[in-house]
């Protein structure tokens, strides 16, 4: 029997329970990962309904890293408006430094460039997350604003907003 491989794939409604578990695990592992507090109390049925909406949206996208049936990472692009989407990515700590964050980011940016009409992708990175900041810079993101954010444990920490142009004013 062969070793399982990591599959980077779009989310499905059937991922609802596993995705809720992954999001809870990610919140416990890192102060740089924050999720919408409203998601914390969703039932599996409610999460599946949210995923159905996400999957049918041309401006929002969600992908997961699946290792032998276990979700170990997630990435999202959520439209802030008609032209700007905010990207986020998170990997379980035991799978860090294996290129999964890069793989998820590259897949998400490919989607943004080829399947969306978004012109810019933005993100906020906490400065203490040096690995992520380096990854985003290597992918072409440029710092557009420096500020502070409140991390997952309630501390105010320095952060930067970074932006990547994916379409130059044309519609996909």
Automatic annotation (TrEMBL):
Ranges of residues in domain N-acetyltransferase: 6-167
Pfam families listed in its UniProt record: Acetyltransf_1
InterPro entries assigned: Acyl_CoA_acyltransferase (IPR016181), GNAT_dom (IPR000182)
Gene Ontology terms, MF aspect: acyltransferase activity, transferring groups other than amino-acyl groups
Xref: PROSITE patterns: GNAT
Coiled coil: none
CDD domains: NAT_SF
Listed name of the protein: N-acetyltransferase domain-containing protein
Organism of origin: Furfurilactobacillus rossiae DSM 15814
Origin organism lineage: Bacteria, Bacillati, Bacillota, Bacilli, Lactobacillales
